[in-house]
Design brief:
By secondary structure, the protein is α+β, with helices and mostly antiparallel strands. The protein is 16% helix and 45% strand. The protein has one helix and seven strands. The chain has a four-stranded antiparallel β-sheet, with no helix packed on it. The chain starts with a helix and ends with a strand. The N terminus is likely disordered.
Length: 101
Amino acid sequence: MVCLGLLVLPAWLRAQGSSVGSITGVVNNPSGSAVPGAAVMIRNVNTNQDRQTSTNGAGVYSVTSLPVGTYQLKVTAPGFQTMEVKDLKVDVGATLRQDLT
């Protein structure tokens, strides 16, 4: 029983030190079809640090390990209008879902 406690404790300690979250979502065109290969930029408004990724074949994007804070999301794709969302709040251990059409 003591051994089990020793195995669980390190994971608990790591979770306590984490101060990150993530943003994920799906990018669709106005007709509801996925937009693969869209450029996704997420900016921390407090530090002006950017993280960039692109949507996969199903239009899904995910940016993990974002420090807690407020973010701006910008999505661009050839032939589509630029989409922006401001004031996205990332909380500790949370995954914020932000779909765009």
